[in-house]
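#random but structural
TW: two for the price of one
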Amino acid sequence: MIGTTRRRARLFDPESGKSVILSLDHGASDGMIPGIEKIQEMLGAVGSSRAQGVVLNKGLARSWGGNVDQRVGLIIQLSGGTKHGLPTYNKSLVCSVPEALRAGADAVCVHVNLGNDLEDRMLGDLGVVTDEAHQLGLPVMAVIYARGGQIVNELDPALIGHSIRLGGELGADLVAVPFSGESESFGRAARSCPVPVLVTGGPRKASLDIVLDDISQALEAGASGVCVGRNIFQHPDPIAALAKVTERVHGAK
């Protein structure tokens, strides 16, 4: 597991000990949403930011991965599904670990939605990926949401805590979940998780200040960083938004 551990460590700033991962894999699921046309520009600029990683689907990784600075970790999303499919929370493996490695991956990502009738298959996918990735020394980031027919409130603190625990129990090297807004329960789950916990940005917020406040609260509760997408690339000035997020996570430089 030395290779896995070393590669995961590169996804964290050596001074702050925190991580900022820019998630740019939304095109497959959501199509031509606002801001999606800025992705290539952002990939060229991310090296001058203080972000530690970027998440891409395999097609963009093959075509534009060369634009990503070598100091920034390339995380390839293995899961796919569109907003048009039924059920909308379905995610299937659309990329293998060896294919991700050939595309230049420093780590891989699997998306799991719990609390629905496809949960068992998505958990099975996570299990297969962790085994294959660890054989090749690649870290696995599990992005876990509570979504589906059994879920009333996706931000239920108990569900967020269970999501954190699930990722740690099933062998992920990083777990990314939404922030519940309830610091005590989130912190308890994060502190007892055997691997670092990141918070996802979620849907586009009304303002970047709201995002930054949520990040501060999550970090104080025990999060090890953030995995943010829409709230950066859909911002009118995404490069400036990324700079503000990295400053909030790592502190002023």
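TW: number two ↓
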Amino acid sequence: MQDDDTSAGPEHSTLRIEEHGDHVEVTLNRPDTRNAIDAAMISDLHALCAELERRPRIMILTGGSDGVFAGGADIGQLRDRGRDDALAGINLHLFNRIRALPMPTLAAVDGYALGGGAELSYACDLRIATPRTKFGQPEPGLGIIAGAGATFRLVRLLGESVAKQILLAGEWIDADRALALGLVHSVVDPAGLQDAARALAQKMARTSTVALRMTKLAVDADEAAHPQIDLAIQALLFEDDEKHRRMTDFLERKKP
């Protein structure tokens, strides 16, 4: 895949979208509210997901350059939600949809990723941080739980003990600890965050698109699906023309 075309994407009131040849860059765009996730942003992100499901590409998701990825859900709207809204899983269904996108997703997190903002980053496949990045789940202080994925995604990402430190003890995870725990891929200077995210996206884009999609599908599959799903996917890929071409190219380069 090539990265030689850049253009503005579809118009969304809460997102800035740039189309590139091998990926799409999405910036949360509610700076006056520290990128609080409101109903309009949820709608815009669903529309984006629909486009990435129709035409799969790698996605980079960032909060812009003001030192905030996303400060959480919009508390004004959250306060007015009732039992039926909670059971509808408004944020959870969106984050599940992001998690299930066909191609890899990468959160470029500069500054605070709190509450729903942190859960949005957990829904992405990979995360890159800056030295001022902090992840936290302050929901119990507001009388609710982290109900948009943190209670189960953090356990899978970090293990039960660390997940409970964040969810129950209210610990915030800074960039150094996030790197040590494997929550983030790397920590880079804020000025270089977007370039680092692009480099990682382009590295993934140089691999086989179908193999990348199938690898994500296998990794995200329920444990009970393994090893059968691995065998089925590998059988599909073994018959793929691109597999033969890439392996032939590799062997040709190895010739003395």
